[in-house]
Amino acid sequence: MYMLKTGDKAPDFTLKSETGEPFSFHQHLEKDERFHLLVFFRGEWCPVCNDQLKELEQNIDTFNELNTHILAISTDEMENLNKMKETHSLSFPVFSDPERAAAEPYGVQYHNGELYEDHGQHGEPALFLVDDQKRVLYFDIQTGPFGRPTAEDLRKTIKYIKKTLQK
């Protein structure tokens, strides 16, 4: 399996948006020159994921000040994700990726249910920061629900990268 490295070109993917329209990540980046934080999460049923997404929303002004747009992606079904998005009043897009069209090229870990019992098959948490040149600037890939960076950790990381980034 290919592993991304910082500086690599971010893989493109196309997923259906919340309204059912196709969303191409690279086409989006050509129109939107902000940094993008891809937040892969387990699903609506995961309390740790819900806490992470709520925390990101609570700090949305900080991410906006850092010119960073959040995109959340899960292998969960869109119906569940729409319910979660409404429950937590999430302002950023949430995408369903049941076929792992986005998760697989990014090397997001996948729980297949064989090693231990945990809600069947699902993607695990991961974060990727991508710049306007489609470069991967930072990533954090998890194999379980715990150990994710906080919004404050991400703020510091994005601020540091912006300060030290070579164009």
Automatic annotation (TrEMBL):
Active site feature: C49
Organism: Fictibacillus arsenicus
Listed SUPFAM superfamilies: Thioredoxin-like
Ranges of residues in domain Thioredoxin: 4-163
Keyword Disulfide bond included in the entry's annotation: yes
GO molecular function: peroxidase activity
Record lineage: Bacteria, Bacillati, Bacillota, Bacilli, Bacillales
Record keywords, A-Z: Antioxidant, Disulfide bond, Oxidoreductase, Peroxidase, Redox-active center
Pfam families listed in its UniProt record: AhpC-TSA (PF00578)
Signal peptide limits: none
Source taxon at top rank: Bacteria
InterPro entries per the UniProt record, alphabetical: AhpC/TSA, Peroxiredoxin_AhpC-typ, Thioredoxin-like_sf, Thioredoxin_domain, Tpx_Peroxidase_subfamily
Full protein name: Peroxiredoxin
